[in-house]
Write a structure and sequence with these properties.
The chain is mainly α and 130 residues long. The protein has 5 helices and no strands. The longest helix is centred in the middle third of the chain and has 35 residues.
């Protein structure tokens, strides 16, 4: 697992950099820089909006003693999405936006839930110490 993470943290930024350089070759350096800045500004605004909305839903459900697992998952995906948006690049920005946008975040949550349920049911994931 550690090897997979190391490979991802090395290869993904490298592929992103190569892709950005290719895009700069095609559309120009200034245009590419403007595109990176615009995705950063748009991503920051979207992250703030979705983060605040999720926080408000979390607080309301918590005060009504309702289940908050969906809001916790949304919050985690928004944080991870923001981290992807911090890394300049087309691939990481795309992943970040997918995690932050509410309609795609819903699909990612459903996929993660199914994935984790399969891992738990196949006993590939164990909880110890509880």
């Amino acid at each position: 697992m550690l090897l997979k993470l190391i490979l991802i943290f090395i290869t993904l930024p490298l592929i992103d950099l190569i892709l950005l350089l290719k895009v700069a070759e095609i559309i120009g350096i200034i245009e590419t820089i403007v595109m990176v800045i615009l995705t950063g500004v748009l991503g920051a605004g979207l992250t703030k909006r979705e983060g605040i909305a999720t926080w408000i839903k979390f607080k309301n459900k918590l005060s009504n003693r309702e289940k908050v697992s969906g809001e916790l998952a949304n919050g985690a995906l928004i944080i991870f999405g923001a981290a992807f948006l911090l890394t300049p690049g087309l691939i990481t920005d795309s992943i970040g936006f997918l995690m932050i946008l509410p309609f795609t975040r819903k699909w990612i949550k459903a996929w993660l839930k199914n994935y984790l349920n399969r891992k738990i049911n196949n006993q590939h994931v164990r909880f110890e110490g509880f």
